[in-house]
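Thread amino acids onto this structure.
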């Protein structure tokens, strides 16, 4: 029997489907030579802010810069500690370090894989102290803890109510890493309404890397905020620290997003609600299919307060390597997001964390596999992915033999 392969991600189909609209953007920019700034950038910023439920958005050249500019614009200073999770893409901590701050980690929740509010409370209560002048200091680094970066990993928002309660109590700035969560929603029990990712912190960062739910045809990112001062500061930082040409209030960066990319993103933004709905349908279908796995496969957990947008569909299995090899042989693409938690990365050896410091993140990192997930994925393709996984787990756990034994015993009884 021969099967066609199933890619981890299909980036070609949506671009072919939108080819005319996307090339029209390119033609429009060519004919005006408005490559940098201008109405295409401003229109996208307005539309993206409206989509996220914020007052402002600043388009920048990557998610990493969005996070760095958001931190700097919100007042993070050199020498501050910024708290985040160890199971994120390294860009989260790169941005923290590049803003001059020091990352410190708090472990994740076993079910959602996101920042665990109880572990944040424990960190603040037992690993920090308040100095004579009222600053919250980290015991491990003796530096002031000023901000938290909750990461809405895989497209599901962090449980923000308890996090915001703690950050209000400790007067900490919250910058959301929403780089994987365009359109994800959170139901606040406190405010009794749904919030979009990017609208709950003082500011947030999004990535428009091509494979994201909203991706550019190249690099891109955005800062969202409802604080006009943060929006203005982020816009200055992306443009060499100038609000007026050649009048530099601060030293900034070359971090602008060009007009072609924003034009492309405006075209795609109109499709994002439909694409996200399709991702949710695909996730429901996987969940239904994995219900037959008898607990061997742990499908993603979506709490009732969450409407995730499944940037990635991540399962857990005890034989991760075996499962991935089996799928590879069957022509099915997979990924690991991410294999080594940041506190154990060579790049962060100087932070002096050890194996065992964040047991949940470490355990999860050893068992996760990301399966094919994109809006154009078909139910037939999903059936094949799950059949292959279930065939592999049944074989390796010996359940198949058990089932065959009990079937033949039953057959003998009825004979
Ligand atoms: C959680 C997270 N944070 C930050 C980033 C950085 O975004 P970019 O690659 O656009 O710089 C990414 C992108 O992969 C991400 O997934």
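Threaded sequence (415 positions):
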């Amino acid at each position: 029997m021969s099967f066609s392969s199933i890619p981890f991600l299909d980036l070609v189909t949506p671009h072919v489907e939108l080819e005319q609209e996307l090339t029209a953007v390119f033609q429009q920019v060519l004919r005006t030579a408005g490559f940098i700034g201008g109405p295409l950038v401003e229109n996208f910023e307005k539309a993206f802010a409206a989509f996220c439920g914020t007052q402002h958005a600043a388009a920048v050249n990557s998610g990493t810069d969005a996070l760095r500019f958001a931190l700097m614009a919100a007042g993070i200073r050199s020498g501050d500690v910024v708290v985040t999770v160890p199971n994120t893409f390294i860009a989260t901590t790169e941005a923290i370090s590049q803003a001059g701050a020091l990352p410190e980690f708090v472990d994740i929740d076993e079910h959602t894989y996101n920042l665990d509010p109880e572990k944040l409370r424990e960190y603040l209560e037992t690993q920090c102290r308040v100095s004579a002048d009222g600053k919250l200091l980290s015991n491990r680094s003796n530096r002031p803890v000023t901000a938290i970066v909750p990461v809405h990993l895989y497209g599901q928002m962090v449980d923000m109510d308890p996090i915001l309660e703690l950050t209000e109590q400790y007067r900490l700035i919250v910058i959301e890493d929403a780089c994987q969560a365009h359109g994800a929603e959170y139901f606040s029990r406190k405010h009794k309404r749904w919030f979009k990712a990017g609208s709950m912190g003082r500011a947030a960062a999004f990535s428009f890397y091509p494979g994201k739910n909203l991706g550019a045809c190249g690099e891109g990112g955005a800062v969202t905020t409802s604080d006009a001062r943060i929006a203005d500061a982020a816009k200055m930082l992306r443009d060499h620290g100038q609000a007026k040409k050649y009048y530099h209030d601060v030293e900034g960066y070359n971090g602008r997003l060009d007009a072609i990319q924003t034009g492309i993103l405006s075209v795609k933004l109109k499709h994002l609600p439909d694409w996200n709905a399709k991702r949710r349908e695909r996730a429901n279908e996987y969940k239904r299919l994995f219900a037959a796995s008898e607990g061997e496969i742990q499908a993603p957990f979506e709490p009732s307060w969450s409407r995730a947008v499944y940037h990635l569909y991540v399962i857990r299995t005890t034989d991760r390597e075996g499962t991935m090899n089996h799928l590879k042989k069957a022509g099915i693409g997979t990924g690991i997001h991410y294999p080594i938690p940041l506190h154990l990365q060579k790049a962060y050896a100087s932070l002096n964390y050890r194996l065992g410091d964040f047991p949940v993140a470490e355990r999860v990192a050893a068992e996760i596999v990301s399966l094919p997930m994109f809006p154009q994925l078909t139910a037939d393709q999903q059936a094949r992915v799950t059949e292959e996984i279930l065939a592999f787990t049944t074989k390796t756990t010996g359940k198949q033999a058990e089932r065959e034994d009990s079937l033949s015993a039953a057959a003998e009884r009825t004979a």
